[in-house]
Amino acid sequence: MGLPRTAHTSRPWRIHEIAGDFRVEDVWALPTPGGPDDFPHLVRQIANVAGGGAAVSSPVYRLLFAIRWKLGELFGWDKEDTGTGARVQTLRDRLPADLREGPQDAGTRSGPFTPLYQLHDEWAAEMANRTVHAVMHIGWVPDRAGGHRGQMAVLVKPNGLLGAVYMAAIKPFRYLGVYPALLRAIGRTWEANAGERSAG
After folding, report:
1. Cα separation of the two ends of the chain
2. pLDDT per residue over 113-139, tens digit each?
3. Fewer Cβ atoms within 10 Å of its own Cβ: the N or the C terminal residue of the chain?
4. Which phi and psi angles does 36 have, rounded to 5°?
């Protein structure tokens, strides 16, 4: 379910002090009900599902990503010299000492996203290419049933006119094809892994 930007901006996330010059593009409630200690399970799952893993079975989702990667190859959007540490400075350089020295789990890499930090209720990762510098932020928030659930925000800094045009062009595809399939896959996988979470 889509949420207003304030669902992200009103919470005391640490990402605000690191990516304050990024625009909050999308905020989503994740279908991942759980307890206060289930957040690490969600972070591991996001690495598999959001990274384009087999859990996302939608042919539309897969087609859209295949087209995107082909366009990126044709126009050079995803070359190494367009990413973090090349075209843009990595946000890791902005991390305060307590976040930089916190636990870093290489297993939480999600597709093109590289982890920045992880806390008990917050995880962030970044990616960059010729069109945009983006952050995927996952939080663990109280729900109305007395439990918790995941919340995903996407923050972006478009790269000039190209980036602005690109973000506007892909918006309908994100809302019609990408996010619905991604959220369904996250929900299915979360349910399927309920036994693993309850086992500790």
Report:
1. 28
2. 889 999 999 999 999 999 999 999 999
3. C
4. -65, -20
* CA–CA distance, 152 with 137 (Å, rounded to integer): 6
Query: Tokens 């959007």 appear where?
Result: 77
Write the pLDDT tens digit of every residue in 55-102: 676 777 778 778 887 887 888 888 888 778 778 899 999 999 999 876
Residue bearing tokens 């918790």:
148
Question: For every residue of 92-147, which 3-state class applies, written as one string?
Answer: HHHCCHHHHCCCCCHHHCECCEEEEEECCCEEEEEEECCCEEEEEEEEEEECCCCC
Q: What angle do the packed helices 179-192 and 59-75 form, to 10 degrees?
A: 120
The confidence score (pLDDT) of residue 63 equals 80
Q: How many CB atoms lie within 10 A of CB 21?
A: 9
Query: Letter for the amino acid at 35?
Result: G
Residue 8 structure tokens: 């992200």
pLDDT over 70 percentage in the chain: 90
Q: Quick check: 78 and 129 in contact, CB under 8 A?
A: yes
Task: Provide the pLDDT for residue 126.
Answer: 94
- Alpha carbon distances (Å) from 8 to 47, 50, 67, 81, 92: 21, 19, 30, 31, 21
Distance, in Å, from the CA atom of 164 to the CA atom of 191, rounded to the nearest integer, reads 37
